[in-house]
Amino acid sequence: MATDPTQRYYRAPCPGCGAPVEFKSAQSTHAVCGYCQSTVVRSGEVLTRLGKMAELFDDHSPLQLMASGRIQLDGKNVPFTLIGRLQYKGDAGVWTEWAAFLSDGTLATLGEDNGAYVFTRPIDPGREMPAPERFRIGTTTAINGKPYSVAYTGQAQLISAQGELPKLPPLGQPFGMVELRSSDGEVVSIDYGHTPPNVERGRAVLLEDLQLQGLKDESAKHEKGRQFSCPHCGAPVQVQLSTSKSITCGSCASIISLDSGVGGELRSAEQDEPVQPLIPLGSKGQLQGVHWQVVGFQHRMGVEPGDDEHFGWSEYLLYNQKRGFAFLVDSEEGWSMVRPTTGAPQMAATGRSATYMGTKYDLKYTYEAETTYVLGEFYWQVTRGQKTTNRDFASSKGLLSMEQSPNEITWSAGDKISSDTVAKAFKLEDKKDVLQRDDPGPFVAKSGLGCGTIILLAVVILILLILLSRCSSCDPRVENCSSSSSYRSSGGSYGGYSSGGSHK
Fold it and tell me: Which spans does this entry mark as compositional bias, Low complexity (predicted)?
């Protein structure tokens, strides 16, 4: 177990049932008894029972209490152990945060962020935090002199907890939550469930980089009780992921809200004009070295401001137990693989470019997006007719997309991939023709002109000379000499990647 052997542990009997309750960190003030679920508070050498904690919502996470690992902090490889687990619910969904006990005796947080993991530590913001309603989506604020973009504001509440924990907000009582993100990939969380607000800062991490030991076996998933009848047609519906907030009925394709959890009041919305996914739900494939499973599908339509011509694209929601969620996007411009970013790119004042992780991306499209059809499971509350404002950017290093809703801005980044790669990954070689797109070459600036380019230019010039010669000799009394043409980009997009909101 990755803890400092000199750390003094404290153990006392639970006031509710007498079972031993142990505190490893001097910073921990609360704990949940593993036997009777009593919430106890530590005051000196005395434990006081506050009440009973609600049952945990099984999120099928590979993490569990007492799992240990290592994290790079300030150039050092620091051991840590997961000693507590908190579950929150907000308008963006349900998420889990783990209390990580570092070997220096301090506490940190390992939380889930848009299907990824973020490791954060408490910081002193250097100033008094304004009220949460003072933060406006898309504006910039500073923490210790560093600029951050306001990515999310909303309400959250603690719904359950387990293990050893820092001071807890009142169970079930809403409090403000604000998320800030920087152009170099940092995220700052401001939790107004404490007085003064708790401020933490961190970055995205991969579970494999944390050298974790003691993870839950994948076979330990417990899916009992995750089946119910469709409220519209009565057909059985099976939920595969406990984090799902929406699911569609396999019989009537109605969208079913799971916002209250299975067993709560289920609401459904009928869908018509089905759009069948080219990659079947449940398909498994390997892309970019990761094994993914297709768990959701949505079709979306976009329209540029001031235009009445719509364009469409499809998004496949992919899931991996350790990597979380990603999107495989099928648009007129080809296939792309993207994931929500932890940080927030810095957009130029003109809106014509954005900079992220030191790379500048140029604006290609601005459009309004709307969800028109969905299938499968989603970790956010998806509804038909959801609308967002989107901007797509591109650079030699890949793609970048911004999606804005009333209370959140989500950025996504990724790369284009070839149709052959998609077909091979999901073993769909027999559908190669259907999956085929105009796969563009890589975004690489080339110096000089190749022979093929020179020949092509020569042919174009020759055609223009012929046309000019023809028009100069044209007699309008005999021929129609006027010519007109119009061209409009097909639009397309890199995704309009519905992240469904952040974890807070």
Answer: 482-491
d(CA 391, CA 413): 12
Do 164 and 286 reside in the same domain of the chain?
A: no
Residue that has been written with the tokens 């991490």 in this structure: 205
Q: Tell which residue, 497, 488, 114, has the closest CA to residue 300.
A: 497
Q: Which value, to the nearest 10 degrees, does the dihedral of the CA atoms of residues 21, 22, 27, 31 take?
A: -30
Q: What is the pTM of this model?
A: 0.68
How far is 38 from 162, CA to CA, in rounded Å? 10
From the list 374, 385, 382, 377, the residue with the least C-alpha distance to 277 is 374
Q: Which residue has the higher pLDDT, 22 or 431?
A: 431
DSSP 448: S
How many CA atoms does the CB half-sphere of 172 hold within 13 Å? Answer: 5
Structure tokens at 494: 């890199």
Helix (H) or strand (E) holding 192: none
Same domain? For 40 and 159 the reply is yes
Residue holding tokens 């620091």?
Answer: 78
Q: In the predicted model, what is the mean pLDDT of residues 357-385?
A: 89
H-helix or E-strand containing 14?
none
With contact defined as beta carbons under 8 Å apart, do 387 and 369 qualify?
yes
pLDDT score of 393 more than 70: yes
**Rounded mean pLDDT, 213-236:** 65
Where a domain ends, among 396, 420, 435?
Answer: 435
List the beta bridge partners of residue 164: 31
Contact by Cβ (8 Å): 69, 83? no
Task: Tell me the residue range of the domain where 316 lies.
Answer: 273-435
Cα distance between residue 465 and residue 479, in whole Å:
19
The single residue listed with the structure tokens 């519209």 is: 232
Domain boundary among 387, 414, 435: 435
Residues sharing a CB contact under 8 Å with residue 130, sequence separation 6 or more, in sequence order: none
Task: Please say whether the beta carbons of 437 and 422 come within 8 A.
Answer: no
Q: Look at strands 334-340 and 93-102 and give their pairing.
A: unpaired
Residues 183 and 306 occupy one common structural domain = no
Place of tokens 């995220």: 187
**Pair (25, 167) in one structural domain:** yes
3-state secondary structure of 425: helix
Please, which residues have CB within 8 angstroms of residue 208's CB and are 6 or more apart in sequence?
Answer: 322
Structure tokens at 74: 């300030």
Q: Please give the tally of structural domains in the chain.
A: 2
One-letter amino acid at 35 equals Y
Q: Which residues contact 484 (CB under 8 A, 6 or more apart)?
A: none
281 and 213 in one domain? no
**Which of these, 87, 88, 85, lies nearest to 177 by C-alpha position?**
88
For 258, what's the count of Cα atoms within 13 Å in the CB-facing half-sphere?
28
Does residue 66 sit in the same domain as residue 197?
yes
Beta bridge partners of 32: 39, 163
Residue 139 covered by a domain: yes
Structure tokens at 99: 């209390």
